[in-house]
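Example record

One chain of 213 residues, shown exactly as stored in the release files.
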Amino acid sequence: MVHVIEVILFAATSFAVGLSGAVVPGPMLTVTISDSMKKGFIAGPMVVSGHIIAEIILIILIFAGLGWLIGSPRASFIIGTLGGIMLILMGYNITRSSQPVPEVSEDEEVTRYGPMLKGFMTSVSNPYFFIWWATVGCAFMYKGLELAGAVGVLGFVAGHWASDLGWFSTVSFLTSRGSGIMNEKHYKTIMIICGAFLIVLGCYFILNAQKII
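Predicted structure tokens for this chain:
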């Protein structure tokens, strides 16, 4: 009974820590806003799904003993440079989306799963994503193991993913509701701002990576 209460409290703490990171503006928030305006509420959960896939892969690598490599200066340099280029390209594509896009049809597989792919790409292209998991993420996972073994780790990821899903779904819902009443000029302005933010962030990642090596 004591372990159950401890795991629940641990999951709640993981939720709070995850939420504090999720609400900080970043690439994922930007693509969630831009895709929600085009595809509706479903974009938010799909972006988070892509993010979760990236985190599952990273968790497997950490438990495989590669946590030291993920947080190494060389890895940060490569991720920062390539990730920055990726964000610049994504930002450029978003700024070109000046017209509202109709909902996708069932046979448009690539477009339909676009938000999920973007969720994955904005995660793996962000060097701070890897730094967080190599430090804070590792600490929480090993604390979960110490607390209740595999159940403790599940408590951590459940709380962490619930924070991401809750926040980005809320953003997606509010954005999609607003996109239904805004005019073309407002839509274009928001898309340009989102695209410009990703381009600036991409440049920052690249410049910051050059200082590492």
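Notes: The mean pLDDT is 84.
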